[in-house]
Amino acid sequence: MAIFVFLIIFSLMFYLMYKVKYFRTQLPAEKKWLSAKSSIALGSFVFFFGVNSLINPLSTVAIVVGIILLVVGLGSIWAGYKAYRFYLPFAIEEAEAVKEAEMKEKTVMD
């Protein structure tokens, strides 16, 4: 189905976007937070790929591979979501500290 092809491409694009952001940031908590988000996106990619292979199975091997991809994708989504929820408060705290430091630096410069 075309919707699963769209979802596969969409999740792959999000994975690449989060990985680029991961390599561009210097903050450690934000790196882990972005890594968790990219894990969710990659898990979605694998999951939708597995669903797509199960929709129109060509053989028994395709069914087995599809089921394996579904399980691996769901596991990656679950682990990424848990990491996302764990690192989110640290990333927020880190961003606020950086913002405060920039504000202090700006007031000193004036």
From TrEMBL:
Membrane spanning stretches: 6-22, 34-55, 61-81
InterPro entries: YtpI
Name of the protein in question: YtpI-like protein
One Pfam family of this chain: YtpI
Keyword terms: Membrane, Transmembrane, Transmembrane helix
Protein source organism: Sutcliffiella horikoshii
